[in-house]
Amino acid sequence: MTLPARPELAGAAPYGAPQLAVPVRLNVNENPYAPPAAVIAAIASRVKAAAAQANRYPDRDFTELRHALRDYLAEESQATYLSADQIWAANGSNEVMLHVLQAFGGPGRTVTSFSPTYSMYPEYARDTFTTWLPGEREPDFSIDLERAIGHIDQTNPSVVLLASPNNPTGTAVPPATIEALAKHTAGRAILVVDEAYAEFRRPGTPSALALVPNYNHLAVVRTMSKAFAFAGVRLGYLAGSAELVGYLRTVRLPYHLSAITQAAALAALEHRQALMAQVAQLCVTRDYLAAKLRERDLEVPDSDANFVLFGRFADRHAVWQGLLDRGVLIREVGPDGWLRVSAGTEEETDLFLDALADVLDAPGRVG
Ligand code: PMP
């Protein structure tokens, strides 16, 4: 008997970056460094205290965590001090953005972004019955302001998702473009600046957080998955106006953020200094990776994230497979001809570069 599934789910595969047990895994932009021992101990102690009250529902409004996230953002971006009711959090920034679409998208409404961009955006749209009508980036992956505005006028979205630094290209959107888009969408759409990789931005690339106090429809989304080496915990968050956050609070399921998650996130935020040292190292590795790939005459867009896109290959799948055969897993994603690799530990990064040289220089070379 066939099940009465929604027609748009017919034949759809769940999100599925391969999870393969190979020695070098550089495919999902994780932080390659495990949390330091002091952070692990602090998490264990906070979680133990939370476990002792596991019979009770957690704080629905995660008040302590909101304050800690607010303090972290003020410190990290030298941004205006926000109030805790301007902060939202959920199980990963994916869930945060789903809340945005649940509150501001919906049947008869449209969400847009600029491709190539994060592959989950169309899924948030589908799952909230919102029409997905993306515009395009330029061949160098930048966003042309006039074209973007034209696209917004034509598609009339209620939500615009703007990844900066963008995945899979690593490229950041200039602040003037973000502010112009904020002005243009005021009163008609929510503008989400997805800053999942913000902590890896290069000096001189500002965060859009500074704009939050000026625009009640602009929200900046962050995650602890990358910079905080916390992908396994699932904690994403958002900064926006209290009014916008109020709508997210309306659509969330009760107690969506477990006491265990709240406890673990608080412990990591307390130890942010140790974790940010890893971020600085990853930025050095990212720049090294880009330089080494360029030495091979490969194209690498300037990256403000913890990964780089590189190409172009006539047969990118063959290159991806060649690397996998040598124990290195990267990501076959983005426009045809390109591959994406995350910055690993120094050792992993060199193993990747050696394997790539082996694949590309082998007799009968691929790609
Ligand atoms: N936004 C972007 C641009 C991403 O690349 C990712 C993860 N790859 C996310 C959001 C979601 O991250 P998480 O749900 O782990 O916070």
List keywords for this structure.
Aspartate Aminotransferase, domain 1, Aspartate Aminotransferase, domain 2, binds 4'-deoxy-4'-aminopyridoxal-5'-phosphate, about 375 residues, alpha/beta
Can you offer a commentary on this structure?
The chain has 367 residues and is an alpha/beta fold. The protein has two domains: 100 residues, Alpha-Beta Complex (Aspartate Aminotransferase, domain 1), CATH 3.90.1150; 235 residues, Aspartate Aminotransferase, domain 2. The strands form four sheets. It has a seven-stranded mixed β-sheet, sandwiched between helices. Strands 1-12 form a two-stranded parallel sheet. Helix 1 packs antiparallel against helix 8. The longest helix has 24 residues. It starts with 23 loop residues before the first strand and ends in a 6-residue tail after the last helix. 4'-deoxy-4'-aminopyridoxal-5'-phosphate binds next to helix 3.
Summarize the structure.
The protein is of the alpha/beta class and 367 residues long.
Helix and strand arrangement:
Layout: E1 24-25, H1 37-51, H2 63-77, E2 87-90, H3 93-104, E3 110-112, E4 114-115, H4 121-127, E5 131-132, E6 135-136, H5 145-155, E7 159-163, H6 175-185, E8 190-194, E9 218-223, E10 236-239, H7 242-251, H8 259-270, H9 272-295, E11 307-310, H10 316-325, E12 328-329, E13 339-342, H11 346-361
This protein binds 4'-deoxy-4'-aminopyridoxal-5'-phosphate.
Residues 29, 92-94, 118, 163, 167, 194, 196, 223, 225, 231, 236 line the site of 4'-deoxy-4'-aminopyridoxal-5'-phosphate.
